[in-house]
Amino acid sequence: MKRREFIINSALAIGGTALLAGCGKKELIKSENQVARRKYKDITIPLLGLGCMRLPMKGDEIDQQELDRMVDYCMEHGANYFDTAYMYVDSKSEFAIGKSLKRFKREDFMLADKSPIYKMNTPQDVRKIFNEQLKKCQVEYFDFYMCHNINKNSVGTYRDVHMVEELAKLKEEGKIKYLGFSFHGTPEILREVVKDYEWDFAQLQVNYLDWDVVKAHEQYDIVQAQGIPVTVMEPLRGGGLVNLSDKALKKLKENSDNSPAAFGLRWAASRDNVVTVLSGMSNLQQVKENIQTFIDYKDMDEKEEKLADEIAKIIQSQGEINCTACKYCMKVCPRGINIPALFALYNQYKVTNNKMLFGIYYETLADDEKADKCIKCGLCSKNCPQSLDIPTLLTKINDEYNKTAG
Fold it and tell me: CA of 72: how far to CAs of 8, 18, 50, 79, 102, in Å?
């Protein structure tokens, strides 16, 4: 489809004049056959955005045709917010989403990108890589731009290279409209970061399972107290809140007409300070289902909030490993162990208790991807947004497999 076939209501794309106060429920804007929007400063933002970390694939390459179909459908229904990053999909995401969005007028979509702290050695690197990202995405500016993945291991570099100061200059030049950060650290570090700059927004991991498990609620409260709006990542916890256990799914079906995905997305969007929820959709069908959720969107009521808490307790009681399958651990593993796959296998095993299937699926992994290849270097844990003790968990998984094999 060509861009002239899309008629994007200009009032939806750039309208609204109310300033975001940073706390309290945001005004919801609805229009027929369009996803709901919320006011943010002098614009409105779709309540659903396309996260570009889990794009459709053909082998090792991004399926550009399927991505174009996904983007077309998003644009047609007002979901015109797209979020990418330097390292997403083995550093191919920026190229792909840039190619797809190039078919549209620049003012008709919002593009968010992130500055890769791990690539920075000097303040000059900040601008250099920023310009590379502009080129890859084929744009002249980013609507939203972030200091990416601030945590206990990266916060020192983020400050040493004066990242905020350098990005603030780019904002003054009009190359960044709104400057924020994404965070995967402790509440203690977050309390410091929110004071480093008058941030336009913060990107946090917010979902009903992690709300208490990894102190997401505490982090959200810290940001909200500073009046900083929130964009949500991992609302479905890397798919973990879509593929519910039988017990959790039964609980949901008995008390709600929502699918697991719709329920999780609505829960995240219902937080007071949230302006958009990013979903890492990887095919057109997921896009259609999620967009329908936000066309029909309404905030959760008290009964649904209680149900989410009950489902979370069911999941936690079944011993799942708190992994979102971001694959950051795999980027630094010297042995190439498929850590997310192992955790997913183990979590499913703990839900079903099917030892035979656990053993069968484990054997589908290549020998060098298995848990027993871990040399306990600890690099994975240092790179893990969830601060998991990965070597210990891999030992546990290997021991469990040896029991089933025996």
Answer: 12, 29, 12, 10, 12
DSSP three-state, residue 82: strand
- Can you list the positions of beta strands (E) in 244-315? 274-279
235 by Cβ neighbours in 10 Å (0-12 / 13-18 / 19+) ranks as buried
Share of the chain above pLDDT 70, in %: 91
Residues of the chain with CATH 3.20.20.100: 3-316
Cα 70 to chain centroid, rounded: 17
67: left (phi over 0), alpha (psi -120 to 50) or beta: alpha
Token pair, residue 324, equals: 């979102």
What pLDDT score was predicted for residue 7?
32
Q: CB–CB of 379/337 below 8 Å?
A: no
Q: Which two tokens stand for residue 258?
A: 């929502």
Nearest to 112 by CA among 147, 144, 88: 144
Residues paired with 39 in a beta bridge: 44
Measured distance CA(132)–CA(110) in Å, rounded: 18
Buried b (16+ CB within 10 A) or exposed e, 305-319: eebbeebbebbeeee
Place of tokens 């009009």: 174
Separation between Cα atoms, residue 257 and residue 246, nearest integer Å: 16
Neighbours of 188 (CB within 10 A): 9
Closest alpha carbon to 286 in 340, 350, 218, 235: 235
Residue 21 pLDDT exceeds 50: no
For residue 376, what pLDDT is reported? Answer: 96
Which pair of tokens denotes residue 280?
A: 């890492």
CA dist 161 and 184 (Å) reads 19
- The pLDDT value given to residue 355: 84
Q: Give me the helix-helix angle, 302-317 and 260-269, nearest 10°.
A: 120
Q: Distance (Å, rounded) from C-alpha 357 to C-alpha 354?
A: 6
Residue range 363-381, pLDDT digits in tens: 777 788 899 999 999 999 9
pLDDT, position 354: 78
Within 309-362, strands assigned E span: none
Segment 269-283, tens digit of pLDDT: 999 999 999 999 999
Domain range 3-316, CATH architecture: Alpha-Beta Barrel (3.20)
